[in-house]
Design goal:
237 residues; alpha+beta; three-stranded mixed sheet; 22% helix
């Protein structure tokens, strides 16, 4: 992955105010093309984060390093498909038959392939916040591979883009608004959705993290996002 300077800056901003701590490992069951999968086993995760936040967070994963930080004591479930992977963490019980809609507090991580069956989904995000890829989207539309009426070029009117480069966008979708935060499986409600969209590889593939927390835990959202960016930077070396 070609890391942008913004990714490095965000990672360093976390490291400067962080300490090395151990967080509980939480394995998440999943379902998909190969059928139901049991939750993976693991050990405490070593992360760099503010010590005060560490007491309220855990690391959730469905395996293969696909995971993120979220509040302790929540439930989790993953989905695997031909176009990518999804992992949800929420206070409520999660199973394959009760995931949607995600109307309450939720952290959602999605990894979508930039080619094949994932192209249509990734192209929607390209059109919204990655102008460098607009010629590709327009070419797919002109060739009849994508429906013209489904794609918009330019950001959602209400979204707040706090960081925007050719391959990374950090955003917030305000309460009761449609935006990058609701392009996945989170339904708009009275809480904002913070997140980050990151393009990886040559296709490129799309990694998106969406974080909607209760008001009393909302200050954890930047740390959850920045920890994911640190992991991506480390894994890309």
């Amino acid at each position: 992955m070609r890391n942008s300077s913004a990714l490095l800056v965000l990672a360093l901003s976390l490291a400067l105010s962080a300490q090395t701590v151990h967080l509980p490992f939480v394995g998440c069951p999943s379902d998909g093309q190969t059928g139901p999968q049991e939750a993976p086993k693991g050990t405490d995760q070593v992360v760099r984060i503010k010590a005060t936040a560490a007491r309220t967070l855990a690391f959730y994963t469905s395996g293969g390093g696909f995971g993120f930080l979220a509040p302790r004591g929540w439930r989790c479930f993953g989905l695997e498909g031909s176009g990518g992977s999804l992992l949800f963490v929420s206070p409520r019980s999660l199973k394959a038959d009760n995931l949607f809609p995600m109307a309450g507090p939720t952290v959602e991580l999605s990894s979508t392939e930039g080619g094949g069956s994932g192209t249509a989904t990734v192209a929607e995000v390209w059109g919204r916040v990655f102008p460098a890829f607009w010629p590709i989207v327009k070419g797919l539309i002109d060739n009849g591979d994508l429906p013209r009426e489904k794609y918009t070029f330019g950001p959602y009117p209400d979204d707040k883009l706090t960081v925007q480069t050719d391959r990374l966008v950090q955003f917030q979708t305000p309460p009761r608004s449609e935006g990058l935060g609701t392009m996945g499986h989170l339904k708009a409600n009275d809480d904002p959705i913070d997140g980050v969209a990151l393009l990886q590889g040559r296709n490129p593939d799309l990694l998106m993290l969406r974080v909607r927390l209760p008001r009393e835990q909302r200050d954890l959202a930047p740390m959850i996002i920045q920890d994911l960016l640190l992991r991506q930077r480390r894994d890309s070396r």
